Amino acid sequence: MERFGILLLPVFLLVGLAQIYLGYIGIEYHLGFWAAVAAIAATFMFRFMLPITIGSYFGAVDVLGWPWWGGVLVAAPGLLFIAPAMVMAALEPIFSKR
Hints:
Oligomer: single chain
Mean pLDDT: 87
Radius of gyration: 16 Å
Structural class: mainly alpha
Order of helices and strands: HHHH
Low-confidence stretches: none
Number of strands: 0
Largest sheet: none
Helix content: over 70%
């Protein structure tokens, strides 16, 4: 089983790089070069993936001309990681014991 994970590592890296590229071109198309660079910087420095995820949808749909459902399939993995983190961040002040 461990060998299977090692074999999938390049696949996950390529998918991640493709999503970052699509996010970059989507943000650059709509907001310009500096906004795309800021989104990439926010992704790596602050682990804030929402702009790249939204940009990957717009990169696939508006720049590459894919149908809307293709853009959703590209953006879905990023949204699946963002949603639980946002819910936990919203609920943490309610359930924290001080």
